[in-house]
């Protein structure tokens, strides 16, 4: 059995990780940590875990946790995974960070978007961006995995076939994304207050959201040229899910069928990316609870734009599910171990 430690087990992402890993046949919990709930049984905080997980939440004792676990997950606000990574690295263990601390390769870009000093710059080159559909081989051999952000997961999977195959003008990409409120985490805030979100739909972070450099970094690698994107996130009155609608200018005349054939080839054999048939559109409900990213493509022959839609569950393929997928890749296990393919409906 692989012993895992989850630092930040009481956030939305951490609690999903506990739920998924509790059903994973190769994993046992070494430690589940919390700042606010240390001393409580996890099901006292999360009743849905009653009868499933009986572990007690504990305060973080970093040296002890790292010594006692084979793989450590951090599900903490950004800025907090760096000291953990140093300890994990020194003790030859493996880290999967669900936050943003190791996603950007350039510490100066991290510092300018996150307004936080990067204190583990020496480890950045060893970290692998944990999107298994693109970096499976590197993930297998890495000891620091930077689990992607939720918006970037939906955008990058949606656009990768177009950029890799040089089908679009790389400077023409527009990403219009909508997220459920759980994307903002469990902490109390005015942004996620019931009466602020219910019946409301609004954009935020226009031209300033911190996922922009992450998306640009990854899309530039795929395109083979540096590119910039216009990315606008929106908060929608739902709990889970991200739906991204993306637009780009095609380099040549193509039909929807031709572009779809390229997508099917690109994602052939990928368990968790479902390229939908022509005429079928993704929805957040169709992926809720599952690790799938559903993608649809339409060519608007009138404007010569291709329109891509992609849907994920922000807490599963956008966070905890992707982290479990990365764990499976690292361990050489079937990638769907402990993960759901079909979601919940309705
Ligand atoms: N929510 C989502 O959809 C996604 C989240 N992520 C990333 O995953 C990480 C966790 O997100 P999420 O679960 O939403 O966040 P939450 O706010 O729901 O949870 C944060 C967790 O971190 C702990 N924590 C908070 N502040 C500190 C601190 N100063 N020191 C130590 N522990 C602390 C909390 O502990 P306690 O509760 O005990 O106080 C809690 O366990 C973030 O980096 C987030 O950006 C990534 C993709 C998607
Ligand atoms: C709806 C909502 O508020 N979403 C969050 C998503 C951020 C997130 O979880 O991403 P990191 O892992 O990169 O911090 C936001 O826009 O800040």
From TrEMBL:
It catalyses: N-acetyl-L-glutamate 5-semialdehyde + phosphate + NADP(+) = N-acetyl-L-glutamyl 5-phosphate + NADPH + H(+). The keyword Transcription regulation does not apply. Keywords: Amino-acid biosynthesis, Arginine biosynthesis, Cytoplasm, NADP, Oxidoreductase. GO terms for cellular component: cytoplasm. It is found in: Cytoplasm. It is an enzyme of class 1 (oxidoreductase). Residues 3-142 form the Semialdehyde dehydrogenase NAD-binding domain. InterPro entries: AGPR (IPR050085), AGPR_AS (IPR023013), AGPR_dimerisation_dom (IPR058924), AGPR_type-1 (IPR000706), NAD(P)-bd_dom_sf (IPR036291), Semialdehyde_DH_NAD-bd (IPR000534). Its main location: cytoplasm. GO terms for molecular function: N-acetyl-gamma-glutamyl-phosphate reductase activity; NAD binding; NADP+ binding. GO terms for biological process: L-arginine biosynthetic process. SUPFAM superfamilies: Glyceraldehyde-3-phosphate dehydrogenase-like, C-terminal domain, NAD(P)-binding Rossmann-fold domains. Its EC number is 1.2.1.38. Pathway: Amino-acid biosynthesis; L-arginine biosynthesis; N(2)-acetyl-L-ornithine from L-glutamate: step 3/4. The active site is at residue 150. The keyword NADP applies. Belongs to the NAGSA dehydrogenase family. Type 1 subfamily. Catalyzes the NADPH-dependent reduction of N-acetyl-5-glutamyl phosphate to yield N-acetyl-L-glutamate 5-semialdehyde. This is N-acetyl-gamma-glutamyl-phosphate reductase. It comes from Desulfotomaculum nigrificans (strain DSM 14880 / VKM B-2319 / CO-1-SRB) (Desulfotomaculum carboxydivorans).
């Amino acid at each position: 059995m692989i012993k895992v430690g989850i630092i930040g087990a009481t956030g939305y992402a951490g609690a999903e990780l506990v739920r998924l890993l509790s059903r994973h046949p190769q994993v046992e919990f070494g430690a589940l940590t919390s700042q606010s709930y240390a001393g409580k049984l996890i099901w006292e905080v999360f009743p849905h875990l009653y009868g499933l997980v009986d572990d007690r939440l504990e305060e973080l004792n970093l040296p002890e946790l790292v010594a006692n676990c084979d793989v450590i997950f951090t599900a903490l606000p950004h800025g907090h995974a760096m000291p953990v990574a140093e300890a994990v690295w020194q003790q030859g263990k493996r880290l999967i960070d669900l936050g943003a601390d190791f996603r950007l390769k350039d510490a100066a870009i991290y510092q300018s978007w996150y307004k936080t000093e990067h204190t583990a710059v020496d480890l950045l080159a060893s970290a692998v961006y944990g999107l298994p559909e693109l970096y499976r081989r590197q993930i297998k051999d890495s000891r620091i995995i930077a689990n992607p952000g939720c918006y970037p997961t939906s955008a990058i999977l949606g656009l990768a076939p177009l950029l890799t195959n040089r089908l679009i003008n790389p400077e023409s990409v527009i990403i219009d994304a909508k997220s459920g409120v759980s994307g903002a985490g469990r902490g109390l805030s005015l942004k996620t207050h019931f009466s602020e979100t219910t019946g409301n739909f609004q954009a935020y972070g226009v031209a300033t959201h911190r996922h922009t450099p992450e998306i640009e970094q990854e899309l530039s690698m795929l395109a083979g040229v540096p590119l910039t994107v216009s990315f606008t996130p929106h908060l929608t009155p739902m709990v889970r899910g991200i739906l991204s609608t993306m637009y780009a200018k095609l380099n040549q005349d193509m039909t929807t069928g031709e572009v779809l054939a390229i997508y099917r080839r690109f994602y052939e054999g990928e368990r968790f990316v479902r390229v939908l048939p022509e005429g079928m559109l993704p929805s957040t409900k169709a992926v809720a609870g599952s690790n799938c990213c559903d993608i649809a493509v339409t060519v608007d022959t009138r404007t010569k734009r291709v329109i891509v839609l992609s849907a994920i569950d922000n807490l599963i393929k956008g966070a905890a599910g992707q982290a479990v997928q990365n764990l499976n890749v690292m361990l050489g296990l079937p990638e769907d171990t402990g993960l759901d393919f079909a979601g919940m409906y309705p």
